[in-house]
Every structure is written in C-alpha cells, then in structure tokens.
C-alpha cells in the first residue's frame, strides 16, 4: 500500500508501480508462472505457516517478559520494507504479540537510542535533539495512533508538513 512512497527512496519501484494496472498484473502473472512458479500453499501448509507466526509472536512476548533488550528498527532499504511506514507496522506487530504499547514506544525511542549509544536521541530532556511528532491520538490506547501525525518538530522548529509533502511529491514525479 505504500508503493508510491518507495519510488522516492528506490527509483526502480516505479516499475512495480506501473505493474499495478490490469495489463501489468497480467504480464506479471505470466512472468511469475513461467519463470518463478509459486504453488499456492495447501491447507496443511497454511496451518504450519500460521502456527509458525503464532510461535514468533509468543517468543517475542516471552523475550519481553524475560527482560531481553528489544528495539524497534526496520531493515531499510529492503524491497518490501517502506522506510517510516515499516516502523509503525513493526510497532503494531509487537503490540499484537502482547507487548504493552508503552514498552513498544520505549523500544522505538530511548531503547533504540541507547543501543546506538546516542543519549541525545529518543528522549525529551535538556540537551537532546528537539525532534518530536505531535500525535492526534494516544498511542498507548491504540499504537496505530503513531501514524496520526498532527505536527512535526525538527530541531526545535515546527516543520510545515505540506512543504515537505510537496517536495516529496516532486521527487516522485521525476
């Protein structure tokens, strides 16, 4: 769903974007069937996949409960990971695994900064970089509220998001 945003980061995604139409999907299906046949998983295989994903969620929850250091940070650039959006998706998956939203927010901010040994990041305190997202919702009630950005503060200065989006859109249209 975030393919439009990927083009600015990885220009070759423009080819994928063109493939979203009816003709592109037809060509894509033909190419995949001919050169990379991928059989649909059987019901039994789907059950194995579902159990594996449930196990991953349970392991993640147990690691958190055991006090293992967890940080949020996606592997970008990766063809299927969209910088920025993937961070929010990762936080949602952690909450879906049973981790408290408060812990996940810490893992995405100060815990990640601690891992990088960057005390000036990921926290609100004197001497820290003044980069903040002001949200229109409480992410401790619903972690997806992290995507409801009301305002952006960068270096202590409010950023005009419409100008940032216009600049980004111009990048996409090149």
In short:
This protein is mostly helical and 174 residues long.
Provide structural commentary.
By secondary structure, the protein is mainly alpha-helical. Helix content is 51%, strand content 7%. The chain is built from eight helices and three strands. It has a three-stranded antiparallel beta sheet. A hairpin with a 2-residue loop joins β2 (149-154) and β3. The radius of gyration is 20 Å and the shape is flat. The model has no long low-confidence stretch (mean pLDDT 85).
Keywords:
mainly alpha, 8 helices
Write down the overall geometry: flat
- Note the beta-strand portion: 5-15%
- Poorly predicted runs: none
Strand order of the largest sheet: 1-2-3
Radius of gyration: 20 Å
Q: Count of DSSP helices? A: 8
Number of strands: 3
Pattern of helices and strands: HHHHHHHEEEH
Mean pLDDT: 85
Structural class estimated from helices and strands: mainly alpha
Biggest sheet details: 3 strands, antiparallel
N-to-C CA distance: 20 Å
The helicity comes to 40-55%
